User: What shape does this take?
Amino acid sequence: MIRILTDSVASIPADEARRAGIDIVTLYVNRNGEELADAQMDLDAFYADIYDMVDDIPTSSQPSQLVLEKMFEDAAQAGDEVLGVFISTGLSGAYEGAVRAARAVKARNIGFSYALVDSTSCGYDEAWPVFDAVAARDEGKSLAECAEAVLRGVESTRFLFTPESLTFLQKGGRIGNAAALLGNLLQLAPVLTVTDGEATTLAKVHTSKKALDRIVQEFKDDVEKHGLKDVVVHYIGDKTQAVQWAHEVVEPLLGRTVQVLPVSPVIGLHVGPAVGVAYECMQTLAGKLTESVQSRLCVS
Assistant: This one.
C-alpha cells in the first residue's frame, strides 16, 4: 500500500484528509509561550485577534525528527511505501527534515521505499498535487507513477493572493520599513504569487478591489488557456470578505460553488489578513518554476 503524507500547511481540512486517506504531520505555531499544533487548531478562532499579533508575531516550528521517523518507521514495519508532499523549502525546513527521517528509516529497513516532493508552495497550491497523488493511488498506480502525478500537479497549480496591508510583511522582515510606509500611504495593494518556492510580486495596483480584479483576470487567463481542474478561495484572518468575493465574483464566473478555506497560520502570520485563490489547471502553467520540477523529488 502507498501511504500519502503531507504537512498541515497544505491547509486540508481534517475530515477531507481522512476521507481521502491522507496522513497529516503538523507544524506548530508558538504564541505567548504556548506551542499550538497547526493541524488541530480552530483557525477562525485563532485568526479572530490577528490584528493584536502584529507587534509580536507568533513564530512557527516544524515537526521533530522523532515524529517524522516514527511515521516512516510505522510504514516500513507495515510493508507500506510512502509518498510525501511538503511545504516549499523556501518557506520551511520540513521537507529537508522529512528527507533526513526517511533516509534514517531506510538505513534500518532496506526494503522500505519512499518518494518525497518539495511542493514549492503552501496552502492548496500544495494540496492540489496531494489530491493528484490520491487519485493516482486509488487507480492502482505505482509509487513512481504517483510521484509523477504530483510533479505534474506542482507545475499546473498557482496561488494568487493580496494582503490587506503591508504591515505584517514589514513586521516580519519580508519588506523594508520605508517600502511598507510608502505602500500603505499610497494604498498600494500587491498581488502576490509563488515562484520557485518563494513569494513574489506579480503586480502592484491601487486599492484592494483592483488587486482582487487583477487576481480574477490572471485566473481567467490561465483557465482559458489551460483549463481548470479545481479551485479554492483562500483567506487569512476574517473570512467575511473571502466568502463575499467567492459568492459574488468567483462562483458566478465558474457557475458552481467554491470552497472557502483558511490558510495555515504558519504562512498566514507572515502575510497578515489576505484573500486569494489557489487553483490547478489541466495543463502546465508558465512562470511558476524556472528549473526542472524533477529537482524537487527525492526517491529511494
Notes: Residues 174-186 have pLDDT under 50 and may be disordered. The two ends are 16 Å apart (CA to CA). The domain at 2-155 is CATH 3.40.50.10170 (Rossmann fold). Residues 208-226 form the longest helix (19 residues).
